[in-house]
Amino acid sequence: MALQELTYQDVAEHNTKKDLYVVIHDKIYDITNFVDEHPGGEEVLLDVAGQDSTEAFEDVGHSDEAREALEPLLVGTLKRNPGDPKPKTPLPGAVSPAANNSSAGLGVGLYAVVLLGGLVAFGAYQYLQQQQSQQA
Ligand code: HEM
């Protein structure tokens, strides 16, 4: 079956046990027939029915097997509209370029702040040393 492009609103309509879609890493899965098989129980899946469950899925630390179990359930990809929630936490080294950029941006930003703080402290230390040696 060809993959559909669905919006959040479309996915949100599939939020019952008999018709259950979830979004994981911007891909849409029809997990209706998987709910009863889920080793983690149906409750957690019903909690995220029709929603982005990337975070919930990744927080559990699902195995490669679990990821493989997703493949046959794929029905489409997510089409983000302006104002939709941002992508959830990406996989380490994830394929989604948008998600990757945002996390890389934060990482680099954080390094920059730490580095800058270090430089300022070092500069101040040097300055004080110089002042002291001039006084002596
Ligand atoms: C929608 C696609 C999902 C699939 C295909 C899936 C698949 C699996 C599989 C195969 C396992 C067995 C352990 C493993 O191989 O990692 C598992 C365990 C588990 N899953 Fe999921 N899962 C999905 C979504 C979720 C979500 C959204 C949650 C939300 C919290 C969740 C919570 C859990 C928990 C708590 C376990 C551990 C159960 C235990 O060890 O007692 N799963 N899942």
From TrEMBL:
Main location: endoplasmic reticulum
A single GO cellular-component term on record: endoplasmic reticulum membrane
Keyword Transmembrane among record annotations: yes
UniProt keywords, alphabetically: Electron transport, Endoplasmic reticulum, Heme, Iron, Membrane, Metal-binding, Microsome, Transmembrane, Transmembrane helix, Transport
Cellular compartment(s): Endoplasmic reticulum membrane; Microsome membrane
Residue ranges, annotated region (Disordered): 77-98
GO biological process: sterol biosynthetic process
InterPro entries associated with the record: Cyt_B5-like_heme/steroid-bd, Cyt_B5-like_heme/steroid_sf, Cyt_B5_heme-BS, Cytochrome_b5
Record-annotated Cytochrome b5 heme-binding domain positions: 3-79
Pfam families: Cyt-b5
TM annotation in the entry: 108-128
Gene Ontology molecular functions: heme binding; metal ion binding
Source superkingdom: Eukaryota
Keyword Zinc attributed: no
Membrane topology: Single-pass membrane protein
Family indicated by similarity: Belongs to the cytochrome b5 family.
Protein name as annotated: Cytochrome b5-like heme/steroid binding domain-containing protein
